[in-house]
Amino acid sequence: MMRSVEEHLAAVLSLATPLPVETVPVSEARGRVVAASAVAVLDLPSFDNSAMDGYAVRAADVPAAGVRVAVVDDIAAGDTRRLSLPPGGAMRIMTGAPLPEGADAIVPVEASDGGTTTVAFTEVPGVGQHVRWVGEDVRAGDEVVSAGVSVTPGVVALLAAAGIAEVAVHRRPRVAVFSTGDELVPLGTTPGFGQIVDSNQVMLGELVRAAGAELVHSGHLPDDPDLVRAAFADPPGDADLVLTSGGVSMGAHDVVKEVLLAAGTVDFVKVAMRPGMPQGAGHIGGRPIVTLPGNPVSSFVSFHVFVLPLLRRLAGQPAAASLGEEVGAGVVEAAVAWRSVQGKVEFTRVRVAGGAATPMTGQGSHMLGALGAANALAVVPPACAAVEVGQRLSVIRLLGSEVGS
Ligand SMILES: Nc1nc2c(c(=O)[nH]1)N[C@H]1C(S)=C(S)[C@@H](COP(=O)(O)OP(=O)(O)OC[C@H]3O[C@@H](n4cnc5c(N)ncnc54)[C@H](O)[C@@H]3O)O[C@H]1N2
Ligand code: MOO
Protein backbone atom coordinates (compact mmCIF):
# COMPACT_ATOMS: atom_id res chain seq x y z
CA MET A 1 0.00 0.00 0.00
CA MET A 2 1.45 3.31 -1.07
CA ARG A 3 1.38 6.37 1.12
CA SER A 4 -0.17 9.55 -0.19
CA VAL A 5 1.98 12.67 -0.49
CA GLU A 6 -0.04 14.27 2.33
CA GLU A 7 0.50 11.27 4.60
CA HIS A 8 4.23 11.23 4.00
CA LEU A 9 4.49 14.98 4.49
CA ALA A 10 2.68 14.61 7.83
CA ALA A 11 5.11 11.84 8.82
CA VAL A 12 8.11 14.00 7.87
CA LEU A 13 6.74 17.04 9.70
CA SER A 14 6.12 14.97 12.83
CA LEU A 15 9.90 14.59 13.10
CA ALA A 16 10.42 18.26 13.82
CA THR A 17 10.04 20.51 16.79
CA PRO A 18 10.98 24.19 16.41
CA LEU A 19 14.62 24.88 17.20
CA PRO A 20 15.64 26.89 20.28
CA VAL A 21 15.19 30.65 20.44
CA GLU A 22 18.05 33.13 20.54
CA THR A 23 18.19 36.91 20.60
CA VAL A 24 20.11 38.41 17.68
CA PRO A 25 20.74 41.94 16.38
CA VAL A 26 18.06 42.98 13.89
CA SER A 27 20.79 43.33 11.27
CA GLU A 28 21.44 39.56 11.51
CA ALA A 29 17.83 38.40 11.67
CA ARG A 30 16.84 38.29 7.98
CA GLY A 31 15.51 34.87 6.99
CA ARG A 32 14.86 33.80 10.60
CA VAL A 33 11.44 33.26 12.13
CA VAL A 34 10.39 35.59 14.95
CA ALA A 35 9.81 33.64 18.18
CA ALA A 36 8.17 36.30 20.37
CA SER A 37 6.18 39.33 19.29
CA ALA A 38 8.16 42.57 19.05
CA VAL A 39 6.67 45.80 20.45
CA ALA A 40 7.51 49.28 19.13
CA VAL A 41 9.70 51.30 21.47
CA LEU A 42 9.19 54.51 19.48
CA ASP A 43 6.23 56.26 17.91
CA LEU A 44 6.56 56.43 14.11
CA PRO A 45 7.00 59.24 13.27
CA SER A 46 8.40 60.04 16.68
CA PHE A 47 7.80 63.84 16.23
CA ASP A 48 5.62 65.97 13.95
CA ASN A 49 7.73 66.73 10.88
CA SER A 50 7.65 68.05 7.37
CA ALA A 51 7.00 65.84 4.32
CA MET A 52 8.33 68.52 1.93
CA ASP A 53 11.14 71.00 1.54
CA GLY A 54 9.34 74.35 1.97
CA TYR A 55 7.94 76.60 4.69
CA ALA A 56 6.22 75.81 7.99
CA VAL A 57 3.28 78.18 8.54
CA ARG A 58 0.04 78.58 10.42
CA ALA A 59 -2.49 78.05 7.63
CA ALA A 60 -4.64 80.86 9.04
CA ASP A 61 -1.74 83.32 8.49
CA VAL A 62 -1.87 82.71 4.71
CA PRO A 63 -5.51 83.36 3.79
CA ALA A 64 -4.75 84.24 0.16
CA ALA A 65 -2.10 83.69 -2.50
CA GLY A 66 0.46 86.49 -2.65
CA VAL A 67 0.41 87.23 1.11
CA ARG A 68 3.98 87.97 2.20
CA VAL A 69 5.24 86.69 5.58
CA ALA A 70 8.54 86.99 7.43
CA VAL A 71 10.92 84.00 7.36
CA VAL A 72 12.12 83.84 10.98
CA ASP A 73 14.21 80.65 11.06
CA ASP A 74 15.61 77.80 9.02
CA ILE A 75 15.06 74.18 10.18
CA ALA A 76 17.15 71.37 8.70
CA ALA A 77 16.51 67.64 9.18
CA GLY A 78 18.43 66.74 12.34
CA ASP A 79 17.83 70.15 13.97
CA THR A 80 17.16 69.27 17.60
CA ARG A 81 15.96 72.73 18.77
CA ARG A 82 12.39 72.86 20.02
CA LEU A 83 11.19 75.91 18.09
CA SER A 84 7.99 77.89 18.31
CA LEU A 85 6.52 79.68 15.29
CA PRO A 86 5.60 83.31 16.12
CA PRO A 87 2.18 84.47 14.83
CA GLY A 88 2.29 85.75 11.26
CA GLY A 89 5.74 84.22 10.57
CA ALA A 90 7.08 81.31 8.53
CA MET A 91 10.12 79.07 8.95
CA ARG A 92 12.03 77.50 6.11
CA ILE A 93 11.92 73.75 6.73
CA MET A 94 13.39 70.68 5.06
CA THR A 95 11.86 67.20 4.58
CA GLY A 96 12.06 65.26 7.87
CA ALA A 97 12.79 68.35 9.99
CA PRO A 98 10.70 68.84 13.18
CA LEU A 99 7.62 71.02 12.83
CA PRO A 100 7.87 74.12 15.06
CA GLU A 101 5.28 74.45 17.81
CA GLY A 102 2.27 76.39 16.47
CA ALA A 103 2.79 75.51 12.79
CA ASP A 104 0.05 73.40 11.18
CA ALA A 105 0.93 73.31 7.48
CA ILE A 106 3.83 73.12 5.06
CA VAL A 107 3.95 75.08 1.80
CA PRO A 108 6.33 73.36 -0.66
CA VAL A 109 9.14 75.55 -1.96
CA GLU A 110 7.73 75.15 -5.49
CA ALA A 111 4.63 77.10 -4.38
CA SER A 112 6.70 80.06 -3.15
CA ASP A 113 9.10 82.68 -4.41
CA GLY A 114 11.85 80.91 -2.44
CA GLY A 115 12.51 83.92 -0.19
CA THR A 116 14.83 83.62 2.79
CA THR A 117 13.90 86.82 4.69
CA THR A 118 10.31 87.17 3.54
CA VAL A 119 8.31 84.81 1.39
CA ALA A 120 5.15 84.96 -0.72
CA PHE A 121 3.16 81.88 -1.69
CA THR A 122 1.29 80.99 -4.85
CA GLU A 123 -1.16 78.74 -3.00
CA VAL A 124 -3.32 78.85 0.11
CA PRO A 125 -2.26 76.06 2.49
CA GLY A 126 -4.79 73.68 4.02
CA VAL A 127 -4.44 72.79 7.71
CA GLY A 128 -2.26 69.66 8.05
CA GLN A 129 -0.95 69.65 4.50
CA HIS A 130 2.43 67.96 4.09
CA VAL A 131 2.73 67.38 7.83
CA ARG A 132 3.68 63.90 9.10
CA TRP A 133 2.10 63.66 12.52
CA VAL A 134 3.65 61.88 15.48
CA GLY A 135 2.48 58.25 15.78
CA GLU A 136 0.33 58.33 12.63
CA ASP A 137 2.14 55.22 11.35
CA VAL A 138 2.98 53.18 14.48
CA ARG A 139 2.41 53.87 18.19
CA ALA A 140 5.00 52.96 20.85
CA GLY A 141 3.65 49.82 22.50
CA ASP A 142 2.04 48.51 19.28
CA GLU A 143 2.96 44.93 18.33
CA VAL A 144 4.81 45.45 15.06
CA VAL A 145 5.87 41.87 14.32
CA SER A 146 4.25 38.73 15.69
CA ALA A 147 5.70 35.30 16.41
CA GLY A 148 5.92 33.07 13.33
CA VAL A 149 6.71 35.90 10.91
CA SER A 150 9.77 35.48 8.68
CA VAL A 151 12.15 38.38 8.89
CA THR A 152 12.32 40.05 5.48
CA PRO A 153 14.23 43.23 4.60
CA GLY A 154 10.93 45.07 5.15
CA VAL A 155 10.56 43.63 8.65
CA VAL A 156 14.17 44.65 9.36
CA ALA A 157 13.31 48.24 8.38
CA LEU A 158 10.20 48.27 10.57
CA LEU A 159 11.99 46.87 13.62
CA ALA A 160 14.91 49.27 13.23
CA ALA A 161 12.68 52.34 12.81
CA ALA A 162 10.52 51.34 15.77
CA GLY A 163 13.61 51.37 17.99
CA ILE A 164 13.99 47.60 18.29
CA ALA A 165 17.67 46.65 18.04
CA GLU A 166 17.45 42.95 18.89
CA VAL A 167 14.84 40.34 18.15
CA ALA A 168 14.08 36.83 19.45
CA VAL A 169 14.27 34.33 16.60
CA HIS A 170 14.57 30.58 16.21
CA ARG A 171 17.95 29.14 15.43
CA ARG A 172 18.63 28.39 11.78
CA PRO A 173 18.45 24.62 11.07
CA ARG A 174 21.86 22.96 10.69
CA VAL A 175 21.82 20.32 7.99
CA ALA A 176 24.28 17.55 7.09
CA VAL A 177 24.05 16.22 3.52
CA PHE A 178 25.39 12.82 2.44
CA SER A 179 25.30 11.48 -1.08
CA THR A 180 25.72 7.73 -1.31
CA GLY A 181 26.78 5.29 -4.00
CA ASP A 182 29.97 3.77 -5.36
CA GLU A 183 29.30 5.12 -8.85
CA LEU A 184 29.85 8.74 -7.78
CA VAL A 185 32.96 10.81 -8.39
CA PRO A 186 33.48 14.30 -6.94
CA LEU A 187 32.60 17.46 -8.83
CA GLY A 188 35.58 18.46 -10.99
CA THR A 189 36.62 14.84 -11.63
CA THR A 190 36.16 13.17 -15.03
CA PRO A 191 34.06 10.03 -14.46
CA GLY A 192 35.38 6.71 -15.74
CA PHE A 193 33.14 4.15 -17.43
CA GLY A 194 30.20 3.33 -15.16
CA GLN A 195 30.78 6.39 -13.01
CA ILE A 196 28.89 9.70 -12.78
CA VAL A 197 29.54 13.05 -11.18
CA ASP A 198 28.01 13.43 -7.71
CA SER A 199 25.59 16.21 -8.64
CA ASN A 200 23.08 15.51 -5.85
CA GLN A 201 25.55 16.47 -3.15
CA VAL A 202 25.99 20.01 -4.49
CA MET A 203 22.34 20.26 -5.51
CA LEU A 204 21.08 19.37 -2.03
CA GLY A 205 23.65 21.66 -0.41
CA GLU A 206 22.43 24.58 -2.51
CA LEU A 207 18.78 23.72 -1.83
CA VAL A 208 19.55 23.70 1.90
CA ARG A 209 21.18 27.11 1.63
CA ALA A 210 18.44 28.48 -0.61
CA ALA A 211 15.94 27.37 2.04
CA GLY A 212 17.75 29.62 4.55
CA ALA A 213 19.27 26.74 6.51
CA GLU A 214 22.93 26.24 7.36
CA LEU A 215 24.85 23.52 5.53
CA VAL A 216 27.12 22.19 8.28
CA HIS A 217 28.39 19.16 6.38
CA SER A 218 28.39 17.92 2.82
CA GLY A 219 30.02 14.62 1.99
CA HIS A 220 29.87 11.34 0.13
CA LEU A 221 29.52 7.85 1.56
CA PRO A 222 30.49 4.71 -0.35
CA ASP A 223 28.24 1.63 -0.36
CA ASP A 224 29.87 0.29 2.80
CA PRO A 225 27.47 -0.41 5.68
CA ASP A 226 30.11 0.12 8.39
CA LEU A 227 31.08 3.56 7.06
CA VAL A 228 27.43 4.57 6.58
CA ARG A 229 26.53 3.40 10.10
CA ALA A 230 29.43 5.33 11.61
CA ALA A 231 28.59 8.52 9.68
CA PHE A 232 24.95 8.47 10.79
CA ALA A 233 25.80 7.71 14.41
CA ASP A 234 27.77 10.92 14.75
CA PRO A 235 27.20 13.31 11.83
CA PRO A 236 29.60 16.25 11.71
CA GLY A 237 28.53 19.76 12.59
CA ASP A 238 25.99 18.87 15.30
CA ALA A 239 23.29 18.71 12.62
CA ASP A 240 19.58 19.19 13.39
CA LEU A 241 18.71 17.20 10.27
CA VAL A 242 20.53 14.56 8.23
CA LEU A 243 19.69 14.35 4.53
CA THR A 244 20.83 11.56 2.26
CA SER A 245 20.43 10.76 -1.40
CA GLY A 246 20.44 7.31 -2.92
CA GLY A 247 20.40 3.74 -1.64
CA VAL A 248 16.76 3.58 -0.59
CA SER A 249 15.14 1.47 -3.28
CA MET A 250 15.12 -2.26 -3.94
CA GLY A 251 18.76 -2.70 -5.07
CA ALA A 252 21.17 -5.26 -3.68
CA HIS A 253 23.49 -2.44 -2.64
CA ASP A 254 20.98 0.01 -1.21
CA VAL A 255 23.09 0.49 1.89
CA VAL A 256 21.29 3.49 3.43
CA LYS A 257 18.13 1.44 3.66
CA GLU A 258 19.98 -1.62 4.94
CA VAL A 259 21.70 0.27 7.76
CA LEU A 260 18.67 2.29 8.82
CA LEU A 261 16.26 -0.66 8.67
CA ALA A 262 18.60 -2.47 11.06
CA ALA A 263 18.56 0.56 13.38
CA GLY A 264 14.74 0.32 13.39
CA THR A 265 14.10 4.06 13.68
CA VAL A 266 13.42 4.95 10.04
CA ASP A 267 10.38 4.02 7.95
CA PHE A 268 10.94 3.19 4.29
CA VAL A 269 7.84 3.65 2.20
CA LYS A 270 6.58 4.07 -1.32
CA VAL A 271 4.81 7.37 -1.85
CA ALA A 272 2.20 7.74 -4.60
CA MET A 273 4.13 10.37 -6.50
CA ARG A 274 6.30 10.65 -9.58
CA PRO A 275 9.15 11.24 -9.39
CA GLY A 276 10.19 10.46 -5.83
CA MET A 277 8.40 7.22 -5.02
CA PRO A 278 10.90 5.57 -2.62
CA GLN A 279 11.24 7.63 0.56
CA GLY A 280 12.54 7.17 4.08
CA ALA A 281 12.08 9.29 7.20
CA GLY A 282 12.75 8.84 10.89
CA HIS A 283 15.43 9.43 13.50
CA ILE A 284 19.04 8.37 13.83
CA GLY A 285 21.28 9.21 16.76
CA GLY A 286 18.45 11.33 18.21
CA ARG A 287 18.06 13.59 15.17
CA PRO A 288 15.67 13.56 12.22
CA ILE A 289 16.84 11.93 9.02
CA VAL A 290 15.20 12.09 5.60
CA THR A 291 16.51 9.71 2.96
CA LEU A 292 15.81 10.95 -0.55
CA PRO A 293 15.86 8.76 -3.66
CA GLY A 294 19.04 8.87 -5.72
CA ASN A 295 17.64 9.82 -9.12
CA PRO A 296 18.56 13.51 -9.32
CA VAL A 297 15.11 14.85 -10.16
CA SER A 298 13.50 12.57 -7.59
CA SER A 299 15.82 14.02 -4.95
CA PHE A 300 15.17 17.56 -6.18
CA VAL A 301 11.38 17.19 -6.17
CA SER A 302 11.30 15.40 -2.81
CA PHE A 303 13.34 18.20 -1.29
CA HIS A 304 10.75 20.77 -2.33
CA VAL A 305 7.78 18.66 -1.26
CA PHE A 306 9.01 17.22 2.07
CA VAL A 307 12.31 18.72 3.21
CA LEU A 308 11.51 22.39 2.65
CA PRO A 309 8.38 22.25 4.87
CA LEU A 310 10.41 20.31 7.46
CA LEU A 311 13.14 22.98 7.45
CA ARG A 312 10.48 25.67 7.82
CA ARG A 313 9.03 23.87 10.83
CA LEU A 314 12.49 23.46 12.43
CA ALA A 315 13.11 27.16 11.77
CA GLY A 316 9.98 27.98 13.77
CA GLN A 317 7.33 28.56 11.13
CA PRO A 318 3.87 27.51 12.23
CA ALA A 319 2.04 24.64 10.55
CA ALA A 320 0.24 25.63 7.36
CA ALA A 321 -3.44 24.88 6.87
CA SER A 322 -2.97 22.81 3.72
CA LEU A 323 -0.42 20.99 1.62
CA GLY A 324 -0.55 23.86 -0.88
CA GLU A 325 0.37 26.41 1.77
CA GLU A 326 2.96 24.09 3.25
CA VAL A 327 4.84 23.81 -0.04
CA GLY A 328 4.23 27.38 -1.14
CA ALA A 329 1.93 26.64 -4.05
CA GLY A 330 0.18 29.03 -6.40
CA VAL A 331 -2.32 28.28 -9.17
CA VAL A 332 -1.74 28.69 -12.92
CA GLU A 333 -3.28 27.38 -16.13
CA ALA A 334 -1.78 24.71 -18.37
CA ALA A 335 -0.49 26.38 -21.57
CA VAL A 336 -0.58 23.10 -23.48
CA ALA A 337 -1.94 19.58 -22.94
CA TRP A 338 0.25 16.82 -21.55
CA ARG A 339 -0.11 13.25 -20.37
CA SER A 340 0.29 12.39 -16.73
CA VAL A 341 0.49 9.25 -14.64
CA GLN A 342 -2.74 8.08 -13.06
CA GLY A 343 -2.87 6.98 -9.42
CA LYS A 344 0.06 9.16 -8.36
CA VAL A 345 0.67 12.85 -7.93
CA GLU A 346 2.87 13.88 -10.82
CA PHE A 347 5.22 16.76 -10.22
CA THR A 348 5.83 18.01 -13.74
CA ARG A 349 8.74 20.36 -14.26
CA VAL A 350 7.28 23.39 -15.94
CA ARG A 351 8.13 26.91 -16.92
CA VAL A 352 5.50 29.37 -15.74
CA ALA A 353 5.24 32.60 -17.70
CA GLY A 354 2.28 34.93 -18.09
CA GLY A 355 0.26 32.82 -15.63
CA ALA A 356 0.52 29.65 -17.74
CA ALA A 357 2.65 26.52 -17.29
CA THR A 358 4.48 24.75 -20.11
CA PRO A 359 6.06 21.36 -19.34
CA MET A 360 9.74 20.90 -20.06
CA THR A 361 10.71 18.18 -22.49
CA GLY A 362 12.44 15.24 -20.83
CA GLN A 363 10.52 14.45 -17.64
CA GLY A 364 12.46 11.29 -16.69
CA SER A 365 13.69 11.29 -13.09
CA HIS A 366 17.29 10.99 -14.34
CA MET A 367 16.92 13.91 -16.79
CA LEU A 368 18.57 17.14 -15.73
CA GLY A 369 18.67 18.73 -19.19
CA ALA A 370 15.72 21.04 -18.66
CA LEU A 371 16.06 21.58 -14.91
CA GLY A 372 17.79 24.91 -15.34
CA ALA A 373 14.97 26.30 -17.46
CA ALA A 374 12.15 25.08 -15.19
CA ASN A 375 10.89 27.50 -12.55
CA ALA A 376 8.08 25.48 -10.96
CA LEU A 377 6.61 22.04 -10.40
CA ALA A 378 3.05 21.58 -11.56
CA VAL A 379 1.14 19.36 -9.15
CA VAL A 380 -1.01 17.02 -11.26
CA PRO A 381 -3.48 15.13 -9.04
CA PRO A 382 -3.62 11.30 -9.01
CA ALA A 383 -7.01 11.18 -10.74
CA CYS A 384 -5.74 13.11 -13.76
CA ALA A 385 -4.25 11.11 -16.65
CA ALA A 386 -4.18 13.98 -19.13
CA VAL A 387 -3.76 17.67 -18.41
CA GLU A 388 -5.94 19.79 -20.69
CA VAL A 389 -5.15 23.21 -22.10
CA GLY A 390 -6.41 25.83 -19.66
CA GLN A 391 -6.70 23.35 -16.77
CA ARG A 392 -5.94 25.04 -13.47
CA LEU A 393 -3.04 23.46 -11.63
CA SER A 394 -1.25 24.13 -8.37
CA VAL A 395 2.41 24.92 -8.85
CA ILE A 396 5.29 24.87 -6.40
CA ARG A 397 7.86 27.58 -7.06
CA LEU A 398 11.37 26.15 -7.35
CA LEU A 399 13.74 27.47 -4.72
CA GLY A 400 15.77 30.32 -6.08
CA SER A 401 13.62 30.70 -9.24
CA GLU A 402 11.45 33.58 -10.31
CA VAL A 403 7.95 32.62 -11.43
CA GLY A 404 6.48 34.92 -14.05
CA SER A 405 2.96 35.86 -13.00
N1 LIG B 1 13.32 -2.84 -8.67
C1 LIG B 1 13.12 -1.54 -8.42
N2 LIG B 1 14.01 -0.67 -8.84
C2 LIG B 1 13.82 0.63 -8.62
C3 LIG B 1 12.64 1.09 -7.98
C4 LIG B 1 11.72 0.13 -7.54
O1 LIG B 1 10.67 0.45 -6.96
N3 LIG B 1 11.99 -1.18 -7.78
N4 LIG B 1 12.43 2.43 -7.84
C5 LIG B 1 13.07 3.28 -8.80
C6 LIG B 1 12.91 4.64 -8.43
S1 LIG B 1 11.39 5.31 -8.73
C7 LIG B 1 13.94 5.39 -7.97
S2 LIG B 1 13.71 7.05 -7.66
C8 LIG B 1 15.25 4.85 -7.72
C9 LIG B 1 15.72 5.22 -6.31
O2 LIG B 1 16.85 4.49 -6.05
P1 LIG B 1 17.84 4.77 -4.86
O3 LIG B 1 17.34 5.82 -3.97
O4 LIG B 1 18.17 3.47 -4.27
O5 LIG B 1 19.05 5.43 -5.59
P2 LIG B 1 20.28 4.76 -6.29
O6 LIG B 1 19.90 3.39 -6.73
O7 LIG B 1 21.43 4.92 -5.40
O8 LIG B 1 20.43 5.71 -7.53
C10 LIG B 1 19.40 5.88 -8.46
C11 LIG B 1 19.95 6.63 -9.66
O9 LIG B 1 20.36 7.92 -9.23
C12 LIG B 1 21.74 8.13 -9.52
N5 LIG B 1 22.35 8.86 -8.41
C13 LIG B 1 22.44 8.42 -7.15
N6 LIG B 1 23.08 9.30 -6.39
C14 LIG B 1 23.41 10.34 -7.18
C15 LIG B 1 24.11 11.55 -6.96
N7 LIG B 1 24.60 11.86 -5.77
N8 LIG B 1 24.28 12.38 -8.00
C16 LIG B 1 23.79 12.07 -9.22
N9 LIG B 1 23.12 10.92 -9.48
C17 LIG B 1 22.95 10.06 -8.48
C18 LIG B 1 22.32 6.74 -9.61
O10 LIG B 1 23.48 6.67 -10.33
C19 LIG B 1 21.16 5.97 -10.25
O11 LIG B 1 21.16 6.17 -11.63
O12 LIG B 1 15.25 3.45 -7.83
C20 LIG B 1 14.55 2.97 -8.98
N10 LIG B 1 14.75 1.54 -9.05
O1 MOO C 1 9.93 7.66 -8.31
MO1 MOO C 1 11.57 7.57 -9.00
O2 MOO C 1 11.75 8.79 -7.92
O3 MOO C 1 10.69 8.19 -10.46
O4 MOO C 1 12.78 7.95 -10.19
UniProtKB/TrEMBL annotation:
Instruction: Give the UniProt record's GO annotations in the biological process aspect.
Output: Mo-molybdopterin cofactor biosynthetic process
A GO-annotated cellular component: cytosol
Q: Where is the MoaB/Mog domain?
A: 176-313
EC assignment: 2.10.1.1
Question: Entry's InterPro entries?
Answer: MoaB/Mog-like_dom_sf (IPR036425), MoaB/Mog_dom (IPR001453), MoeA-like (IPR038987), MoeA_C_domain_IV (IPR005111), MoeA_C_domain_IV_sf (IPR036688), MoeA_linker/N (IPR005110), MoeA_linker/N_sf (IPR036135)
Per its record, what are the GO molecular function terms? metal ion binding; molybdopterin molybdotransferase activity
What Pfam families is this protein classified in?
MoCF_biosynth, MoeA_C, MoeA_N
Catalyses: adenylyl-molybdopterin + molybdate = Mo-molybdopterin + AMP + H(+)
Which keywords label this protein? Magnesium, Metal-binding, Molybdenum, Molybdenum cofactor biosynthesis, Transferase
* Root EC class: transferase
Per its UniProt record, the required cofactor names are: Mg(2+)
Pathway(s) where this gene product acts: Cofactor biosynthesis; molybdopterin biosynthesis
Q: Return the similarity comment.
A: Belongs to the MoeA family.
Q: What does this protein do?
A: Catalyzes the insertion of molybdate into adenylated molybdopterin with the concomitant release of AMP.
Query: Could you tell me what this protein is called?
Result: Molybdopterin molybdenumtransferase
> Which gene name does the record give?
moaE
